[in-house]
Design goal:
about 260 residues; 12 helices; mainly alpha; Ferritin; single chain
């Protein structure tokens, strides 16, 4: 069981949700000037801005709850690797276009269900963030679903490559539906989302889109875990925060 107080658990919960948006948003921003076309680049950058915007609101709320004078920047730029509790799926490298689309699809299917449930939170601030974010992640899901269908039901090469992307990333999806002790405590208060309860509907969304894309759903049930519960990340995560935090670490207190 957790030794956190309700307030501490709520700070960690808001930051944890924000971490998902910040990290995958940063990952997607790495496609800037590298996407296959200007149209695709603009779509990805819009998704990235949405996700980073969600993170800002959640970090601002976490800072307010924390009450020690921290700001959203402290949560983004002055925490160490182990303090981030994002899902591992959010941080995996971009890979090729298929890898990026599959990662966004898996995360967006989860985010749509998660933020829908968050709108019913007894915490009014989280419920409001959930309602605002829901509009954005619904677009992310539509965009990634359409691309997944296009790749899966396209050429032999695109089908083969995107199937490999699905197979490679599937082991990161199990962590989506795990719950920390802090989340379980907040769930009893009606604050947190029961992520375990989201799995059947997530499975159905994924199955429906993969069927349209003529792609196969992996049978492997083994899952990577550790990012959300323990702050144990993949090797690539250190490179993300080294890049993301360089200016603030090199020039403490700098601002635009």
């Amino acid at each position: 069981m957790t030794n956190l107080s309700k307030q501490e658990a709520l700070v960690q919960y808001a930051a944890q949700i924000g971490d998902n948006g910040l990290i995958i948003g940063h990952r997607m921003s790495e496609w800037c000037f590298r996407a296959p076309s200007i149209e695709m680049e603009m779509a990805l950058m819009n998704c990235a801005l949405d996700l980073i915007g969600q993170a800002r609101e959640l970090y601002t709320y976490a800072a307010k709850l924390d009450g020690t004078g921290k700001t959203e920047d402290d949560f983004a730029y002055l925490r160490d690797e182990k303090d981030f509790r994002n899902l591992l799926l959010a941080e995996v490298p971009n890979g090729d276009w298929g890898d990026t689309i599959v990662r966004l699809f898996f995360m967006s299917a989860y985010n749509k269900l998660f933020f829908t449930a968050l709108t019913k939170s007894t915490d009014e601030e989280l419920a409001a963030i959930g309602a605002k974010s829901l509009k954005e992640v619904t677009y992310h899901l539509r965009f990634s679903s359409e691309w997944l269908i296009r790749l899966g039901d396209g050429t032999d090469e695109s089908h083969e490559r995107v199937q490999k992307s699905i197979n490679d990333l599937w082991a990161y999806t199990g962590e989506l539906f795990t719950m920390t002790d802090g989340e379980k405590m907040l769930l009893e208060e009606g604050i947190a989302v029961d992520t375990a309860a989201l799995k059947p509907e997530w499975d159905q969304i994924v199955t429906d889109v993969l069927t349209q894309a003529t792609l196969s759903r992996p049978e492997n049930k083994w899952a990577h875990k550790g990012g959300k519960a323990e702050g144990i990340h993949t090797e690539s995560f250190g490179y993300i925060i080294a890049d993301m935090q360089f200016m603030q670490r090199r020039y403490p207190g700098c601002s635009w």
